[in-house]
């Protein structure tokens, strides 16, 4: 265990704070380096022994995971919310935070956030785009209906969104400003619909490249879209300890 070095990374937009502990918990190195691939790899490669590294899940986590993982024995991307419960009160700051992360890694107290292999990264990006576009469409739909309901106009169902009924619905609104506002929202929704179809098509096409998709599509009720989403976000069922965790 003395040969293992535990590296805690406190990640920021421009810099990373790195604290290295040895097997007995003593600080070996502290450094502030640029948040750039070359600087990070130079620091990692300068360390001797078996390297374990940890950083918190965040904006840069996926990029850093792919960058660092091939060069270390173990990399743990951890949940910052759970870390707050473990860290409790104490000195706050970049260096203390990085040191605490290294100490938690050394103690085996960190809960990892799963990061899939590069083989599904493209599919995951496409799936996240698909989900985001659907969420955007839902928000626009809610805004459209809120306009009509706010004026006492019944708009249950999906007729209010249909292009062939657009003029009829707009004529029910009193006032040039609100009609233009609603028309713009309807055009926005129409454009989002096209983007949703494009995103779904690309996601499904990418999912067909994965052998596991054939098995998933054979399950009743699991179609092309659900198969793609399962492949993108579950990645592998073997990372779950029980079937209950997997189905959740």
């Amino acid at each position: 265990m003395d040969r293992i070095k535990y590296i805690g990374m406190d990640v920021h937009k421009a810099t990373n704070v790195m604290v290295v502990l040895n097997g007995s918990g003593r600080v070996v190195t502290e450094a502030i380096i640029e948040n750039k691939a070359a600087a990070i790899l130079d620091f990692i490669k300068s360390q001797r022994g078996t390297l374990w590294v940890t950083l918190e899940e965040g904006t840069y986590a996926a990029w850093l995971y792919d960058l660092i993982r091939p060069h270390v024995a173990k990399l743990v991307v951890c949940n910052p919310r759970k870390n707050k419960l473990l860290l409790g009160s104490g000195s706050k700051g970049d260096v203390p935070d990085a040191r605490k992360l290294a100490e938690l890694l050394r103690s085996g107290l960190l809960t990892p956030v799963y990061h899939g292999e590069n083989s599904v990264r493209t599919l995951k990006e496409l799936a996240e785009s698909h989900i985001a576009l659907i969420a955007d469409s839902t928000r626009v739909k809610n805004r459209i209906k809120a306009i009509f309901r706010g004026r006492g106009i019944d708009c249950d169902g999906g007729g209010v969104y249909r292009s062939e009924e657009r003029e009829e619905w707009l004529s029910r609104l009193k006032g040039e400003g609100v009609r233009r506002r609603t028309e713009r929202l309807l055009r926005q929704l129409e454009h989002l619909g096209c983007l949703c179809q494009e995103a779904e098509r690309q996601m499904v096409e990418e999912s067909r490249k994965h052998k596991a998709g054939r098995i998933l599509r054979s399950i009743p009720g699991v179609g092309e879209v659900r198969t793609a989403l399962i492949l993108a976000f579950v990645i592998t069922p073997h990372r779950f300890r029980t079937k209950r965790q997997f189905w959740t």
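The mean pLDDT is 90. The domain at 4-107 is CATH 3.30.420.40 (Nucleotidyltransferase; domain 5).
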